[in-house]
Structures are given as C-alpha cells and as structure tokens.
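Before our next group meeting I need something from you. Please put the record directly below this note.
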Amino acid sequence: MPTERSDSAASAGVAGAGRARVWLWVALLLAVVLHLYGLYRPGEPGESEWFPQSDKVLHFLGFAAPSALAVLVFRHWWPIVVFAAHAVVSEVAQAWWLPGRDGDLVDVLADLSGLLPAVTIWWWLQRRGSRPSASATADSSPTSRTSAAARRPNA
C-alpha cells in the first residue's frame, strides 16, 4: 500500500504545481497591466515625485516584476528581448505622443537595468536544467562524446 500513498502525494504535488502556475499567470497579467498603465498614462500638471529620482526606481520595478514573471511563466529568454525593445519604444511613445510626458534616455537605462532580475532567473533556470540528475552517469549522458556502440567489444 505504500505505492498508493506515494501516488496520491505525487498527484497532490502535480496539482499544487498547476495551482502555482495559475497564480504565476495571474501575477504576470497584473504586473503587465500595471506596467502598461505606468508607462502610458498621460502626465498630470504639477505631478511631484516621492523623492528625487523616484521615477527611476519605478521604471526599474516596472520592468523587473513583469519580465521576471514572464521568464518564470514561459521559461524562455524571449520575454527579456520583448521587454528590452519595449523599454525603447515606451520612451519614444512618451516623448512623441503622450501629453505631459517626455522620453528620457536615463529612463531607458533604468528600464533595461530592471531586466537584470529576469536575466538572473533565466540564467538560474538554465543552470538548474543543465545539471545531470543524480542517477545519470557519464556513460548515459547525451553529451558524452563516445557512444555505447563504440565502447562495445567487437564480437
């Protein structure tokens, strides 16, 4: 009967992973909505900062949260490229089309630096995925340069 208990624990783990994935999607969608709102809302006259350069902190966080969540959801590098391109596009849009807003090269740098957490997560996922499992041996590794046929004695 221990196998029934381990089977139910495994299915509970799969269900928990599925719920976690749903919550990651919800968090990503919320972060993208807030990201877009923060970048494309029109400026208001007399708008003040919380502290000097606080908008740079908001630019960093506005790119860090959705890009990191996107990398966790998709487990791929392309969200980093999309957000990097969006850093430039959003500042051009602010400069040319949004009333009360202006584009700023330093904001682009803050946006791009906000991608560093996503790059770190992508690097971590790659390192974690490239490690051989404990049961794998050098002989069964797909990157082994000698095949099993080459190691067999000739009959």
Notes: Confidence is low (pLDDT under 50) at residues 137-141. Helices lie at 2-40, 54-74, 78-96, 105-113, 116-130, 148-151.
